[in-house]
Amino acid sequence: MHAADPEVAETVKRTVQPYFVLQGNICALLAARTHVNVFLYDGAIVPDPDGIITAGHDNKTARTVAVHEGGELPTAPLLVMFRQIIANNRAGGWRRLKPRD
Q1: Is residue 77 part of a domain?
Q2: Looking at CB atoms within 10 Å, which of 5, 16, 43, 82 has the fewest?
Q3: C-beta separation of 43 from 84 below 8 A
């Protein structure tokens, strides 16, 4: 996360979940038995050209990248997405930027 922007801060929300924030949520981590979910708080407006999103394709607030035990973290595509989410946060956040349906 800090490679995306050195100003990113780590915090804990909901008592146990690690979040990464910069002028709004960027992502949260949730460990499961066999994988870790990376919840991207992007309002589903950040492009996913590499197809790394594994769940939440139709969600209005967040999508998920699941990283399974023994699997590889899609570092480069995630970094691109994190940088776009940070830029969107600095521009007012996805709720302000997302076109109304």
Answers
A1: yes
A2: 16
A3: no
